[in-house]
């Protein structure tokens, strides 16, 4: 399932951030926003930063209660601000929506997204996290009666468990090459040198997972070449500088073209979603 990155939903840079190792994560906590499902992550972030004075959006992830779209908040390993006194052990996930006449209308798509994210957290932790609602650790009605009951019932999905991925389109071929995990921290991306600290350009030889940023950006360009894109000096894409691993107008144009081809948000930034799609989506 795709997680819409911070770059893709237009997040403001955090004013500060602290990381939490998986060894200290023991709880997966459900919240709701107590506002309209039309509310955007950026609106929630603005409220948290401007009104509450927090350093960033408070939640680690957010899910729209109607569409089921899944958004990156602070991410897996960043300390949240969603439950006072319990942000170190708890990954906070907010379902964007509110009670309707005493009942929250949470779509099946939103439930599946929440359950998928919980299972992903368990895989990353290597053991099952305790499943709680905000009211279990705070004096609040959050996350609403319906969600709270669903959490404590173990996230049952009507009609069966989380579905397997859909079949690739007819005539498509599996993605070539060996998948490489996104090498940057959560919320970071390959982008212009003029961007914030988490915009990685390749100009400064910053190291991630034992290799330079330039090396990793070259890997992404090489993967697009395996997928059939004309990559390199004198070719259709990266024709002037080649696949040199330094983000600039040529990499931006390539990223936008690839994002358009894959029906992604076309921002020209190479975040986790754009990276993963290159290694996992079938080639049409």
UniProtKB/TrEMBL annotation:
Give the top-rank taxon of the lineage listed in the UniProt record for this protein: Bacteria
The terms under GO molecular function for this entry are: N-acetylmuramoyl-L-alanine amidase activity; zinc ion binding
- Name the Pfam families for this protein: Amidase_2
UniProt record, GO biological process: peptidoglycan catabolic process
Q: Which residues form the Peptidoglycan recognition protein family domain?
A: 1-138
Which InterPro entries has this protein been placed in?
Answer: Amidase/PGRP_sf, Amidase_domain, PGBD-like_sf, PGBDSf, PGRP, PGRP_domain_met/bac
Question: Where are the residues of the annotated region Disordered?
Answer: 1-20
Q: Which SUPFAM superfamilies has this protein been placed in?
A: N-acetylmuramoyl-L-alanine amidase-like, PGBD-like
**Which family would the database say this protein is a member of?**
Belongs to the N-acetylmuramoyl-L-alanine amidase 2 family.
Q: What is this protein called?
A: Peptidoglycan-binding domain-containing protein
Q: Which organism is it from?
A: Micromonospora sp. HUAS YX12
């Amino acid at each position: 399932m795709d997680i819409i990155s911070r770059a893709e939903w237009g997040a403001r840079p955090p004013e500060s951030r602290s990381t939490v190792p998986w060894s200290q994560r023991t709880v997966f906590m459900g919240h709701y926003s107590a506002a309209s499902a039309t509310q955007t992550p950026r609106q929630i972030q603005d409220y948290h930063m401007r009104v509450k004075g927090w350093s960033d959006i408070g939640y680690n992830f957010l899910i729209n209660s109607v569409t089921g779209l899944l958004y990156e908040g602070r991410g897996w390993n960043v300390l949240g601000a969603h439950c006072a006194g319990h942000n170190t052990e708890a990954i906070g996930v907010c379902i964007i929506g509110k009670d309707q006449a005493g009942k929250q209308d949470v779509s099946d798509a939103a439930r599946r997204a929440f359950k998928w994210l919980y299972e992903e957290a368990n895989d990353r932790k290597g053991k099952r996290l305790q499943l709680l609602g905000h009211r279990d650790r705070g004096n609040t009605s959050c996350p609403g009666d319906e969600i709270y009951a669903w959490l404590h019932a173990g996230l049952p999905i009507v009609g069966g468990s989380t579905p397997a991925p859909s079949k690739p389109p007819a005539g498509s071929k599996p993605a070539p090459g060996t998948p490489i995990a996104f090498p940057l921290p959560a919320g970071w991306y390959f982008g212009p040198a003029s961007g914030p600290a988490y915009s990685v350009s390749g100009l400064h030889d910053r190291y991630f997972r034992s290799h330079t940023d330039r090396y990793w950006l070259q890997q992404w360009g090489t993967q697009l070449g395996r997928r059939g894109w004309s990559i390199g000096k004198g070719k259709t894409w990266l024709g002037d500088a080649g696949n040199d691993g330094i983000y600039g107008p040529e990499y931006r144009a390539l990223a936008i073209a690839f994002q358009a081809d894959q029906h992604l948000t076309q921002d020209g930034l190479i975040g986790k979603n754009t990276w993963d799609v290159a290694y996992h989506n079938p080639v049409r």
